[in-house]
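Office hours follow-up: a student asked to see two folded examples consecutively, so here they are.
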Amino acid sequence: RKRGRIVLVGVIGLDLQRADFYEKELSFQVSCSYGPGRYDDAYEQKGQDYPLPYVRWTEQRNFEAILRSLADGRLKVQPLITEKVPLAGYEQIYGNMGSSSSIASILVYPGQADPEETTVTLEQRQYDGQPGLLGIIGAGNFTKSTIMPALKPASVAWGGSMTVVSSGLYAALKDHPALEVLDTFDKKISPEAMLERRRQALLVDLFITGTNAVTESGQLVNLDMFGNRIGGITFGPRHVVILVGRNKLVPDLEEAFFRIKNYVAPVNAMRLDKKTPCVKTSFCEECKSPDRICNTWTITEKSYPKGRVKVVLINEELGF
């Protein structure tokens, strides 16, 4: 069409004729792989996100949207798979790419052999123990294998947190035979039963959740719809473990508020299919919708009693 735009995605040969562009006044653009943020060290290495109102689709948000679509079954890639090739026959794919009519080829790996057992003896050293509240570690396995044995909880529950789910901790604990688990993510119970379960979750031995933002000075900033998550952080459960992905780190309170109102809240409203203005505009508009999820703010600066709240800082992009 006249004045149309052509976007190149991927790497292909370019056999362009000037006359085609001249006669219809076409514009041509090369798409950066993955989206805005690619090749930007501040974004990819330091976790400095682009403001949502100005850059709606970044590298990370593109991936999140695709993965959500795959998980929900809205994006179907099965029809694109035209062949499956054993790993040993990889040359069948890569040696014939120029003439192959295949759209998507899948390499099938052989069954994994049992790894050879190896025992490593480390030099024994004596360390003086001391209290601490912050650990920079891997994902949910640390909480399961280290923190929980130390706390010895008989009951566990969680506040709404995609970080807890993404870390693998929710899947590892929800059917734990040695724990009384109050699963507040259970979709099979009624809203009334879920509300009562959230109330009971404030009395467990261990409450696991995430946070919307963490400032460089250590302040936890959160915004809730029901208040059960920030309620559990503030008072009730004997112990609280907060899992924090590196994408939640912000310089100060101003940036924390901005991140929550213009990224966290709109994305969660979209995820939960709420009928709020931010679902359409992608930024906060101080709505009065009955579906509004932004109702109660908290800023947590200290744990009382000391040591009750433990923060696990994870060097991964987790949650929103």
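And the second, which I mentioned at the end of office hours:
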Amino acid sequence: MPLQLALLLLLATALLAGIVPASVVIDRRLARAVEARVREDLARAGAGPAGAGPSVGRRARMSPPDQTLPPVCEPARQPEDLGRFFVERANAADVDGLVALYEPDAVLALPGGAVAVGTQAIRAFYGRLLAGAPRVAPGPQSPALRNGDLALTSTRLGGRNATAEVARRQPDGTWLWAIDQPRVLG
């Protein structure tokens, strides 16, 4: 098997098996193209009919052709995108989409003075919060205050509360929150 095909197979299998989180894939079309290419190459190589998918180590398998890849969240190209994405994803009850807005070791202030540190703790908090299906009303967003690779973002939610976050530019040019204080007022 050529090295390129093996790498494509490995990437597609990791994506479909959930080993590589969807947030790693920036472009859904690229991921689908990789999956389709691997299926075509396997069919040509006689590894079974297109869409049958290979077994890898007898445990991981490519998904059947009628399944789609998990949704891929659009990355924040500007720090102001983060607040808008938060409202969209919270109202869609997209916990993974919310967590994708944070750096791996981000800090999120919680009610009662507690703090969630890291994406696992942030995921647990948003999982509990979104289980009640709250609606987040978008409000006016202040322009981000930037200093190099850092930006202070703030949004008014529901007209009564203001948020304050510190976003950091990532090596790929996208922005993620490093610190989030969702309740400054109210």
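Two things to take away from it. Residues 1-11, 14-29, 47-70 have pLDDT under 50 and may be disordered. The CA atoms of residues 48 and 105 lie 43 Å apart.
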